[in-house]
Design a protein that fits this description.
The protein has about 575 residues and is mostly helical. It is elongated, with a radius of gyration of 47 Å. Helix content is about 85%, strand content about 0%.
Length: about 575
Amino acid sequence: MKIGLLIIILFFSHTIYAQDYPINQYMKDLATDDQEQSFRLNEVFEKIRKFNFDEQKKILLVLEKSVKQEKNEFLTTRFSLLKLLIERFYKGQFYTQAMKADFMNNLDKAKELKNEILLADGCYGYAIFLNERQQVAEALFYCLKSIELVEKVGAEKFYGVSHRYRILGELLYHTREYEKSIQYSKKALYAVMKERKYSQKVSTLNTIGMTYQKLHQNDSAIFYFDKSAKSATTQNEEVWVTIPNANKAQVWFTQKKYKQAFPLFEADYRASMKMGDFLNAANNLQWMAKVHLTENKADSALKKAKKALRLLQEYPNSGAIANTYQTLAAVYKYQNKVDSSEYYSLLYNKIHDSTEAVVAKSHSEIVQLRLDDEHNKSKIELLQKQQQTEKMNRNIFIGFILLISLIAFFFYNRQTKNQKQRQQLKEAELEQANEQMELFKKTTFENLELIESLQRKIKQHNLDPDLQQNLEVLKQKTILTEEDWEIFQKLFQKIYPNFFDKLKNTNPSITSAELRFASIIRLQMNNKQAGAMLGISPDSARKTRLRLRQRLNLAEEVTIEQVIELL
């Protein structure tokens, strides 16, 4: 009875869970790769977001387990993007560095999959995520990449195109790309009208107005501020009515229309305090202080500027703080309080310089990100081309494997035969060279013996003129001429390849005469025989041998023959 009741309870609870959290439907929507995938991802996101934080965590855990079981790269990337979108609303409660690394890895997979809709959504989601963490440079890069893909694929295939353009316009404004900011913000307005998401129209018009203000095109700036305020009134967005009006008041301030500007600053200040937007309230206070200063109301100006600074200490923002420092410096200067004026001027300059450095760094980061992206893109394209080539080569290999094998076999046999022939020819040339060298040595030795014999006879017969003449002729034939040396050298190098190069490497300063002497030693000739061949006396040959030993830096116990035989 108890077991049956438990089964009923478990079944009933599972049914409720399935109805409340339709995991299978979420999985199906995430896994479907079609032209509607961008809209379907947003639908899943909106459904999950209706649950409370704990329930969302449970859903994500169940989904993650199911996604891992599927082992589908498209599904894995979509789920990673879904987690990132949900994380936006919880400011770090889900987020970890591992999650970021996982998402970046999946973004690379989206590139490899060549799924441009998935890649555009991934870049957009990551851009929003980065922007909310004030990582402007990276956010701009990924937002711009998303828009490029949207325009390439077609805006009709994507959810939230107007929001993408609007965010891109704002990011470009913050990185001082004002012309491009206007360009993309106007595209956002067109998308707003097409999607009928009029709530985004107000902020987009305001961004365009602020951008024209930065470009000192005041008439255009006021035109768009007025349109923004009017649109806010139409949409019953009271909080947004005062914001563009306060921005318009800044333009009027530069035009010295102080009386018209002050009420607008004051109205936005009160609205901001009511809504709890203390940062904007502080910024309006310092503008009101500026107006008071033009009216010579230094005390009122100081009071408002200090109040602004107190608010900014709780809700810091570098831009608003810098503006307030600048206002305080001006007030103290008006009051002739030089030290205080210089103090706040220094603080202002410090923040201003820091801001300029951040902007410069952002531009360099964007350039580097683009370079890295191009490099990564080239890498992926190269990998894809390699995969295509491998596939094509594999098919060709399968189709023509027999022919390739026959060609390879024929080529191998031919190469083997040619190599064998070359080896035989080389061996024959070496054998012939050895024979010629042996003949050369034999002839040389016979001539030397004959010379010695003639020299003995001359001594015995008291210098017979005929014998003396024959002896001189024979000596000349024994001595190596330059022409003989060239022939001898070629023959010698065939038998002992690289002999001369190796000898030069031991001592580059070795002379040509010493090289010749070394080659004769290699043929196992003594000083007497070497001297006869080189046309020098045995004593000179001995000296040459000694110099050669010194060149080779030989120890006393080492003979020159031992060293030369190793070369």
